Amino acid sequence: MLGLWVLLYFNLSVIYSTFENSRISASLPKPLFEALLFFLYEVPKVFLLLLLIVFVAGVVRSFFPPEKTRALLSGKSLFFGNVSAASLGIVTPFCSCSAIPLFLGFVSSGVPLGVTFSFLIAAPMVNEVALVLLLELFGWQTALLYLTTGLSIAIFAGYIIGKLKLESWVEPWVYESGINSENYSPKQTTFQERIAAGEDAVKDIFKKIWLYIILGIAIGAGIHGFVPENLLAGFMGKDAWWSVPLAVLLGIPMYSNAAGMIPIVQSLLAKGASLGTVLAFMMSVIALSLPEIIILKNVLKIKLIAVFVGVVGFGIMIVGYLFNFIL
Amino acid sequence: MENNSIKILGIGCASCVTLEKLCKEVVAENSINSSVEKVNDYKTIMSYKILSTPGLVINEKVVLTGKVPAKEDLLKLINDSINLPQ
User: What is the pTM of this model?
Assistant: First the structure.
């Protein structure tokens, strides 16, 4: 299987050059030709890369079921706990619909509140699909910046929430309900089961995101061929200082996963929006979402939710300004 | 009167809905003598000590969390956990 993958991946340029030299391509107008070329080359490439990364991530995640992550984090000190939580957020399987059971299960079994928040912020925001897409479409610098700043926001937002000692702003029944952690006893996971977990992850994720990816690359291809105007430069460009907070505010009521954001990010960037503003928008859509806030309201007092949104939103704004400033 | 109870723990995410539908199908197609019930209340859900949803509970025992199984695996899970009619 791996051999087949390598063979395919490294022969992609053959498809590319076959098309480039074919007769159809000669009859096409140049922008359309360029766009098609980009599309034909990027779609299989991104899909192959994702296939590999998602599979590897699935296998890695089989080592970190939420129960184990909880055991690793319980009783951790501030800061070090936040760093571990943010890092584990990348490798622990997470779906936003599980946010509440995870939150409750963590907090009630002795994982500090701030550490739990670090996990909850990092888990959806920093994930392998987003990183692969950023890497492919915008280069490794952007992917790396996204990874480091995403992790930093998760670490520091959680740290601040921990420092503020807001435990009393969690609905009291959470602590009273006696959902104590049972001792985590890892059941033996076989090698076959881990491989199966990787395959499951591939099926699961591809079912959800294939359309977004094709759409994203199609938009990218369109941009590649038909060079666009600086439509948004005026109000989403570097010089508009208010564009970053505006992007964060606009992002809160929207919700999408990281893969779904890529087409939007691409078209915004292409129309002249600056990278910092666009990344701030992307992070805000993914990390702060109204549906999640409404769900969290069942277990957190509104004051704590406000602190959460405020701290994370502030962190995202800093990242936005930072990118706009250095790039 | 049903001898068994199947509960799906979830707060309305897509996977939880899928799992509920799948359970109903499996129960109907195999004439399994069991109720199928969706649990939406947080406190009840948390009393089963699960960390990810959907959770599948058969006769008050958690048998699966965090994923929707393939149909044949679900049938096997149910068959392994239910009481046969006396």
Answer: 0.78
